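FAQ
Q: What does a multi-component entry look like?
A: The components come first, one per line:
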Amino acid sequence: MSERKLKLLHMYPDVLDLYGDSGNVEVLKYRCKMRGIELEVSKHQMNRPDSADFSDMDIIYLGGGADYEQQLLAEDLMGCKDRIKAAYDSGVFLLMICGGYQLLGQYYKDSNGERIPGLGLFDYHTEASTNKRDRCIGNIVVETSLLGKPYRVIGFENHGGQTTGVKTPFGKVLCGNGNVRSGETEGYCEERVIATYLHGPLLSKNPSLADYVISKALERKGLDSTLCEINDSLEKACRKELFSRLLTVKASK
Amino acid sequence: MKLINSLTVAFGKAMVKALKLAGRDAGNFPGLVLWTLNKNYLKVFSADCPIIAVTGTNGKTSTTNFLNRLFRSLPKRDDGKPLKVITNMQGNNLDTGIGSMLLQYCDMSGHIDADYLVLEVDESHVPVIFKHFKLDTLVILNFFRDQLDRNGEVETLILKVQKFLKTYKGNLVLNADDPNVARLGKANPKNKNVYYYNVEKYEGATEELYEAGEGRFCPYCGEALVYDYYQYSHVGRFKCPKCGFGNIEPFVQIKDLDFDNSAFTIEGERYTAKHMGIYHLYNLSAVYAAAKLYNIDHKIIHKVFGSFEVNNGRLERFETADSSLLLNLAKNPVGANMTLRLLNQDKREKELLFVLNDNIADGRDVSWIWDINFSVFKGVTRVITSGTRAYDIAIRIKCSGYDPEKIVVLPDLDQAAEEIFKNGGVKYGIANYTAIQPTRAALKRYISENGGGKEK
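Then the predicted structure of the entire assembly, as tokens:
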């Protein structure tokens, strides 16, 4: 059996690193390591156009950032458009949180009324209320069918942007807001794309979702994509606790 | 004095009295009621004494308590009475908390008779509170990211304080090594009373940023800041290579650190401290700088630095017959990283208790724990987690590579206290904002039921 090795490109880790989002990379690294898979992480940083070879990657990751920071990097990101598009076309897994999610759509109109053009990789677009206090903040649970069977994903949302025009949402909202205030759906997904508002970080309390990303990346490379069970007793107990706390509250309303 | 002001004071005082009769602490409530009636209610108060305020993300309560202790140790008044120093020592640092406290001390005309007012003030409340009070000295400790879902971004807070400082002419005591703080030295170019403090490079300083930090770019010209070294987080000797921002001559510097003997030098004199955490030394440097402005006798500083402890969940020690636990509050990643630095400095084997809550005052979002750096975790034989988010912190520690078999999750604090003391030995404790007092209570309950060590 050939050695299992994956490459992840972490885009703008210094700028898009709100709310512990870099933890997603740490979770992927941990879960790969436990299976003897080497996950090599490289960075793409602002104003360093040749920092990484996108076409060589298996996973591209973008976290969330504040409005000011998103504006700063919009131009640099535009410069990566063709490389990201090529990676996407060749099946590289795209994982994007919050700001990353917004910037790959058509455009993002921020809370100052500033319109930041997106990469336009996907059809959706996002507009934020100019009232900076008008934000969707709180615990959120969504149910996704991306993994073949229904899987409940736990996270924390904190966004002013309202995203519309999503054709294939990531999941159905069980508790929280989602793409729009009091919305029914959350995020955007394809077989090899997850774009979502969920912080937490996303993968920390949803181990099957983390494993899905890893096995899809292995599969594309023609490597053995089976992942052995690891000790997830803490995650299981955590999920049980939070489901009973978050979902019963909702039901009793 | 307007009639309306007298009525406000009388009404406020009546509320404080009623709460006391009901056996309750005044807290924020009377201030909150007055604020609801009149947003400018703080103007009913007046004071002639110097007002010293402490603000910043981390270390406010400790620094304020040290200053309070110093001023209280000053010689008695000419009439033989002890000095009157008024402080909000329990961390009621919003305008409503401070208003409630002042109501207890003022006379019926709203006048506060004291020799010094030493106040801990929340960063975002500095402008509101000192719109009506003449501030003599403002000490600013640091600005870190803290409870993002409650407080918003750090930059917004800094700009708020900066706006207030534009017309401020009093003493300004600033951390020379935090670019977020040092930049405020130029907020009012006409103010000549700007004093910087810092701490000489210590043995745990790093060349690269080791913990999540803020403020990577020069606030004046936008150039990336260059560091000779980082003491912790983004605190360190920085400079802007383009405009020279950061080229600062400190008014006070702590030097020649001796961690084995808990000693250091300031202005050629040797001092000792109860704890040598690097962030604590920065607090002491700030305290010394403020003390210098009031010509406080060095003998008093020696005594307070060498013996005083805040003991309110800030580096507080809990002893049983066979173990000793050092508990420290951590509201944000930097706070937790500071305790981990102490833990890693300690060469012995130890166990860690981590209590994490997600109540409103903590910020509901606990993802900040992923910005804590657990990559160095020396000699930790077991971890006990507790609080409403006990599992979240357990998962966080596990994913840093720590063996999950050595993590015990006990959301109930009394069970967690029993578990952490089960084996004896060296213990460290970290608890976040709403968790700290319940954790102290649970540890004390365990000790009172099972016997303590050399308790004071």
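Q: Is there any commentary attached?
A: Sometimes. For this entry: Residues 233-251 of chain A form the longest helix (19 residues).
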